Amino acid sequence: MTVPIEHSTDTPARGFGTLAVHAGAPHDPTTGAVIEPISLSTTFEQTAAGKPVGVYEYSRSSNPNRDNFEKAVAALEKAKYALAFGSGSAATATILQSLAQGSHVISVSDVYGGTHRYFTRVAKAHGVTVTFTPQIEVDIAEHIRDNTKLVWIESPSNPTLRLVDIRAVAEAAHARGVAVVVDNTFLSPYLQNPLEHGADIVVHSVTKYINGHSDVVMGLAAFNTEELRERLSFLQNACGAVPSAFDSWLAHRGVKTLHLRAKQSSINATAVAHALEASPHVISVNYPGLDSHPHRKIALRQHRDGMGGGMLSFRIQGGRAAAERFCQLTKIYTLAESLGGIESLVELPSVMTHAGIPRDQREAVGVFDDLVRVSCGIEEPEDLVHDIQQALDKAVKETAAAATNTSNGVNGVNGHGL
Ligand SMILES: Cc1ncc(COP(=O)(O)O)c(C=O)c1O
Fold first, then answer.
1. Which end of the chain is more exposed for a tag (fewer CB within 10 A), N or C?
2. pLDDT tens across 256-288, in order?
3. pTM of whole model > 0.90?
4. Which of 149, 162, 167, 208 is catalytic?
5. Which protein residue has the closest C-alpha to ligand 1 atom 16?
6. Domains plus CATH for the chain?
């Protein structure tokens, strides 16, 4: 049985940092422990058949750590309810599974590769079809059919950092009775609250900023209606793609510093984006905190203080070879998938996170072989800028020299496996 929980907070103060620390964080009533204990028990005693001692029966259905974590994130997303899942992908899958067979979904084109994979290879098998559009604000009305049930937005998108005007899309969708989901993974609730802009459901890969320490895989959906709570919590329990109590506890610990981490990541990414924009080795920079970003006005409306977030991507001079070399030459940034952790990462979407998307489709949304994605952590901004600059300089020069040597008939001179 799922235990219905209204995710309100009894904390009188409502500032983000205060909620991050206190929402869903009761002191232990038996010991007074300030930090909640980890409740690993899978089952809970009943005094008579069907009469549990407290509200819990079996840990897949609900458990204290997951409930507290859900309450905390619900408060931060300005939502009445939140449900945690075993991964961001499980949250996506559960929402898609809640649609009747024969339903139609409209999605922005540049979604996370795993979301694209689910839409095209799994949802389809369940009779749910998805139409992708690169300009959803412009043509949403044309794509809505009688069986359209959901619009899927990622803003900013992964990895090209395009923004979508959530309110404009929500108004067009709601006018035709269609619900709107926003994947808010890239910004976290600190920078953007999609429900306040008209979305019906906000999803997160908690794996990223919310947990923030690259040691938990988890997902979450937050929303306001009782109808969604009933439908999605039924599936949360029925499909069972739930996080462990331990992971819920860890992610809840991460939440308590989300405002500090998200702010610093954004400050760092802004410094890095400016340095990249000034570099002769860079073709273009995608960062919504820059005035040059095509959707900067949306960022000013939708993001806290117009902040750009901790993620950016850029195209390096010298093609894929230079991009690959760059990722090997950074000393602080680690070459790895994922994002939103305290440590800075770099990756090549075309061969890593977005390799599953056919070349023509990914290039149509700007995911070229020379695109590098950067996740700025919370290190010192000067160090991050310096590391990017030295890696850029070496990567572009080495690649150019290797190309010259090759065209001169000299092979294998670089010694770096280019
Ligand atoms: C924007 C976005 N949404 C969803 C996911 C999926 O989350 P998870 O890896 O936790 O399943 C990711 C993963 O990278 C992501 O970047």
1. N
2. 999 999 999 999 999 999 999 999 999 999 999
3. yes
4. 208
5. 112
6. 16-255 (3.40.640.10), 258-407 (3.90.1150.10)
